[in-house]
Prior knowledge:
This protein is an alpha/beta fold and 202 residues long. The protein is built from three helices and 15 strands.
Amino acid sequence: xxxxxxxxxxxxxxxxxxxxxxxxxxxxxxxxxxxxxxxxxxxxxxxxxxxxxxxxxxxxxxxxxxxxxxxxxxxxxxxxxxxxxxxxxxxxxxxxxxxxxxxxxxxxxxxxxxxxxxxxxxxxxxxxxxxxxxxxxxxxxxxxxxxxxxxxxxxxxxxxxxxxxxxxxxxxxxxxxxxxxxxxxxxxxxxxxxxxxxxxxx
Length: 202
């Protein structure tokens, strides 16, 4: 059964005295008919409230960090990266995008030079494969572009490239991406590109 987030915290003894139980009480608990001092009750209930607040703070922080402005893929906000870029060029305020589904590319996906501060996070099943004569699969010309995750497949012609970083690209990052059967995984002509955690599968 789904639960709604409570509107208040189980705060207790936020200004009073708290005393931790003894080490023996921590191990064995209280004895039958034992009446613990109020300071130990304050400790137990107060610490529970502290933990709830801390865990909620972490959850809210993680939620904000994991928020996406749009999705790319079947049933998503945009069907492909090119339509996403067209929307951003047209004024859409989009910085963090989840790529959800596999695609066989009908055209090179181009992140143009006017695009800045864009992160594409690929779900594990978001495989992008070569369709027809398409190469490279993704061409990056913008600044501070991050590509994270996903799998690029079958860019296996004579000079095929899965991801090309153009000379206009600055301070981009390609991280944790898998490549399978690609003549060249990444052709980096950009400035200060960081490539980390990529795998060329065998």
